[in-house]
Amino acid sequence: MNEKISSLFDSEINNKEVDTLLSKKNKIAGVRSSMSEYQIISDVLKKNTVLPNNNLTDKIMSAIDEEPTQMGGIIKTNSANTAVVSFDIWPVLGSFAVLVVIASTAFNIEVNNVSTSQFLAKEDIPKEIINAHHAATANNMNYFIQVGDSAK
Amino acid sequence: MQSLKVVSDNSTVYNSSNNKLDNSKMEIKPVNPDRALDQKLVEKAQKGDKQAFSLLVEKYQLKLYRLISRMVRDQSEIDDIVQDSFIKAYRAIGNFRGDSAFYTWLYRIGINTAKNHLVSLGKRPKAMDSNEIEEMENYESMSELRVSETPESTMMSNQIAETVNGAIQNLPDELREAISLREIDGLCYEEIAELMDCPIGTVRSRIFRARETIAEKLKPLIETTNKRW
After folding, report:
1. Residue numbers of A between 14 and 43 with CB closer than 8 Å to B
2. Which of A37, A104, B56, B119 could form a disulfide with B215 if both were Cys (CB 3.0 to 4.6 A apart)?
3. Of A18, A51, A84, which has the smallest distance from its Cβ to B145's Cβ?
4. Which residues of chain B neighbour A59 with C-beta distances below 8 Å?
């Protein structure tokens, strides 16, 4: 156990060993205490200023214990130095798809009703055909009034 | 286990036969084991494992303390800022994407928290250029602690240093060599194994035994200092 803590302190520990350490919840305080001692030794050897063990980690963790558990994006490690974030993607994709459908529908209505169809008709269809078409087609309002009257 | 071959900063390596430095040997690019371990712990914290986050706190609280001490001198204020920084980091851990190293992300939170603290006290935080921020984020270069020390704290620090140094002198040669190569020279286990001509498992064991032997001498002193500090 303690040899693993020493390796953890040096970041020379594999994922499985980290899992083993973290699975022993009741021993985490011991892990932190050993790491704190190793830090003091390390500071002395590196001639750093030695700081008092002020139990700061305990204070921080007490405050964090009162916080709601945080859940979020998860880093998936591809190699030692690269990381990719994977969220629960389906709700996001679903929302995006709905937005795309709404946006494309609105865009099509705009395109078909107003600009493009009329513009293309003027450009591509011979003028005499358009004139013949207008002559043969009833004025919209009159046509529907007539249809409405005849229906009575 | 990750590949752990590391180039030393000055591109030199010890020659195990004569204990001298040899500039010609090392060409291997580093794989940062610190970052790999941090990613593992962050990943667990993001899944709601507070114990994993507590190890990150233990690992970085002192380094963050040193960082903040460059901006704020009062010890109790530094304690508060460090605590606030970790709480903010915990609240935001779900948003940490791993684009930068965890400690870089944490140190930025720490610097911003310290700046906000100074502003709230009506003090103007020192403007820093990007080089300075980068230097502050590089925790390895920050051995200096800039807090106001009391005569008592200085005396305690000296006692601890004497105890550790005395314990190291009394270690068997192979334990002393292993922990010195690790702590003073900053070599990884694989390099130490190569230099000491022994398996990595033996290196791991020697470093652990060295630490435990020193820690045994240190414990009574730490308990005393904790009561006084």
Report:
1. 14-15, 18, 22, 25, 28, 31-32, 34-43
2. A37
3. A51
4. 79, 83
Q: Give the ipTM of the model, two decimals please.
A: 0.73
Query: Chain A: residue nearest B181 by CA?
Result: A45
Please say whether the beta carbons of B108 and B29 come within 8 A. no
Asked if the C-beta of A142 comes within 8 angstroms of chain B's C-beta atoms, the answer is no
Whether residues B61 and B154 share a domain: the answer is no
Q: What is the pLDDT of residues B101-125, one digit of tens each?
A: 999 999 999 999 999 999 888 877 6
Count of domains observed in chain B: 2
CA distance B19 to A146: 109
Q: Are residues B128 and B164 in the same domain?
A: no
Domain region containing B183: 149-229
Residue contact B39–A71, C-beta within 8 A? no
The predicted-structure confidence for B150-209, as pLDDT tens digits, reads as follows 777 778 888 888 999 999 999 999 999 999 999 999 999 999 999 999 999 999 999 999
3-class secondary structure, B8: coil
Has residue B56 been placed in a domain? yes
The b/e string for A8-23 (b: 16+ C-beta within 10 A; e otherwise) is: bbbbbbbbebbeebbe
Residues B177 and B101 in one domain: no
> Is B51 in the same domain as B93?
yes
**Secondary structure (DSSP) of A71-99:** ---EEEEEETTEEEEE--HHHHHHHHHHH
Cβ-Cβ contacts under 8 Å, A48 against chain B? 143-145
Instruction: Please state the pTM of the whole predicted model.
Output: 0.64
